[in-house]
Amino acid sequence: MGIAAILVTVLCMCSLSLSDPDSGTKVGDPVDATPTQNPETQGKQARRDLPEEPEPTSPVSDLDNTYNYILSRLAAMDQAIHRLNVGHYTLDVKVTQLLDRVSRLDSTLGDVEDTMQQISLLTKENLKEIGRLEGCQKGRRVGYKCYLVYRAYETYAGAAQKCLQRGGRMAMPRDRKDQEALADYVKAFFQPGNWPVWLGINDLRSEGLYLFEDNSRVTYFQWRKHFLSSQPDGGKRENCVAMASDDGDWWDNYCDRSMYYLCEFEA
Question: pLDDT, tens digit, for every residue of 77-89?
Fold first, then answer.
């Protein structure tokens, strides 16, 4: 075959390839690479691409949910109230027990206070008895009385209280015999010094009306008499009486002055 024949054959084949009578597609047209799909498949795909719509709810379903929620809340409240009642009952029991213990403790304290009062009374009685014994053993006995000087500084009121605590009272010389016995005892006790001691005599109730500590009236006096200074000279300022230890004379003094004192006891 010659060269011309070969060229004619190649040209014919090229023309056939440029046109396809079966497909209707010409050579050179753009070819769609997307594969063809079934219409039913395309519909399902389109439905999947759309947003899903919420399922409709009925009013009856909403009411049931609300009712169930209220019931659950009421049940929770009932449990809470039950726990509260249990706690209240427990607290009430504990408070009752505590009150019972406090009552028993109060009763015990009452018994202790009664015992302490009895002990205090017995102690006071013992002190009085000891004071009376001490007054007669250490002091001076005159008739049915005993006298004892105490070397402790006290005001008139303080001395009266101390004598009472010891089971006696402040010395009350009612006549010359008592006065001379007391003067002799006090002088010997403080010799050679001169120390005043309180007697149980005062005019606190009324100026010039001298009374003993038992509120009986004084009828015998042993005031100091001197041309320079006679007693009593204190007026309404000096209302309590003391005895000088050097001569036994009486002096009026300020009642709040502190000095030694003289007690008397029943023998």
Answer: 989 999 999 999 9
Closest CA to 250 of 215, 209, 198, 211: 198
Q: Which contiguous run of DSSP H or E holds residue 140?
A: strand 140-142
The helix (run of H) or strand (run of E) holding residue 203 is strand 197-206
Alpha helices (runs of H) in 19-54, residue ranges in sequence order: 39-49
* Residues facing 266 on adjacent strands: 145
176 closest CA partner among 151, 142, 225: 142
Residue 13 has pLDDT above 60, yes or no: no
Angle (CA) 192 194 198, round 5°: 135
What is the pTM (predicted TM-score) of this model?
Answer: 0.58
Distance CA 245, CA 195 (A): 5
In whole angstroms, give the CA distance from residue 89 to residue 91.
5
pLDDT in tens, 60-119: 678 888 888 888 888 999 899 999 999 999 999 999 999 999 989 988 988 898 888 888
Q: Which residue has the tokens 């427990």?
A: 90
Query: What's the Cα-to-Cα distance from 117 to each of 76, 111, 131, 167, 218, rounded to whole Å?
Result: 60, 10, 21, 18, 37
Contact in structure between 179 and 248 (CB atoms under 8 Å): yes
Could you tell me the CA-to-CA distances from 200 to 104, 112, 190, 234 in Å, in that order? Answer: 49, 38, 19, 18
